[in-house]
Write a sequence for this structure.
């Protein structure tokens, strides 16, 4: 059952924490009261999941599911309207040789490229996601972050991928991180009252420990995140399976505690079908089948789509087409 005041993250957080006023002390007590992560055990479990084999029929289903979960991404300073149009066209027709190939979930671009992506995608169900809040560093004032978000929303973004202030988080200033997420979520509401979904990037490579990943996951969910996301793709390490396991445990436990589902998006460094399938196995075994849907799980990627299509073609015709026959419109850190 959902908690009272679920539409008001601050009121909900007070209710969940059992406090009359939300403070750094209250948030710190709650986040540091979460049970610790057994790093060795988590890494061993991730390694075991990575070696899991699946049957051919299941593999074909998993490949199609993974394609449908991709946020096809280009986030480079050299991005041009032509490159973004090419990326969006690729999303519309991932494999011209096989019309049954599913489309990715979204095209993810910088805010100034949202209108170009939106125009190219037209009325298709593929969403337009925009990075915002001074991505990737997050080093800007809150008014600048909100203006960045509102510009992307006005241009037609369906989803916003924001970055948290990692400096504030690591300094223990959880209230600042909480308030910024709440403010950005409010800025995601369009003029017609519909809200864009908010993915909150924790940049787990800078959080140092898996305990911090768990705390950051809960803080983002307390503040109203629709998705928790690993990385910008600009920092190494990016999306690792152990980190994603911790995040999947967090969203599972959050639903048990509140009744609400929150999505998970690993981003950066996931390039092969084998990698993607390992992540899907983890989703199934840790969070559960309800998350095996692109409403609740995404891959932030560009080159991953190429390998998934190559594997899909091999299963269809019994041979690899070769990488030269697969489009490569948007190589990036993702």
């Amino acid at each position: 059952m959902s908690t009272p005041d679920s539409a008001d993250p601050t009121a909900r957080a007070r209710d969940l924490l059992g406090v009359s006023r939300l403070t750094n002390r209250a948030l710190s007590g709650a986040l540091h009261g979460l049970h610790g992560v057994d790093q060795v055990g988590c890494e061993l479990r991730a390694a075991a999941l990575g070696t899991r084999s699946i049957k051919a029929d299941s593999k074909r289903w998993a490949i199609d599911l993974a394609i449908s979960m991709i946020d096809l991404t280009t986030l480079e300073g050299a991005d041009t309207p032509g490159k973004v149009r090419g990326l969006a066209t690729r999303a519309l027709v991932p494999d011209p040789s096989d019309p049954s190939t599913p489309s990715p979930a979204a095209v993810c671009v910088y805010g100034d490229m949202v209108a170009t992506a939106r125009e190219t995608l037209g009325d298709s169900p593929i969403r337009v996601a925009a990075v915002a809040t001074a991505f990737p560093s997050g080093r800007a004032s809150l008014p600048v972050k909100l203006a960045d978000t509102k510009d992307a929303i006005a241009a037609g973004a369906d989803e916003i991928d924001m970055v948290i202030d990692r400096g504030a988080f690591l300094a223990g200033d959880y209230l600042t991180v909480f308030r910024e997420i709440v403010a950005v979520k409010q800025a995601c509401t369009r003029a017609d009252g519909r809200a864009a979904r908010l993915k909150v990037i924790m940049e787990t490579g800078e959080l140092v420990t898996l305990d911090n990943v768990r705390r950051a996951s809960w803080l983002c969910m307390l503040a109203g995140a629709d998705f928790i996301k690993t990385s910008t793709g600009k920092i190494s390490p990016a999306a690792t399976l152990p980190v994603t396991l911790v995040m999947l445990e967090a969203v599972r436990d959050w639903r048990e505690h509140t009744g609400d589902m929150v999505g998970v998006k690993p981003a950066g460094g996931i390039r092969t079908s084998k990698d993607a399938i390992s992540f899907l196995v983890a989703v199934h075994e840790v969070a559960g089948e309800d998350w095996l849907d692109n409403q609740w799980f995404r891959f932030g990627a560009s080159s991953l789509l190429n390998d998934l299509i190559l594997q899909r073609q091999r299963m269809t015709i019994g041979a690899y087409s070769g990488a030269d026959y697969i489009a490569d419109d948007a190589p990036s850190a993702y």
Notes: The longest strand covers residues 106-110. Confidence is low (pLDDT under 50) at residues 330-334. Residues 28 and 134 are 26 Å apart (CA to CA). The radius of gyration is 19 Å.
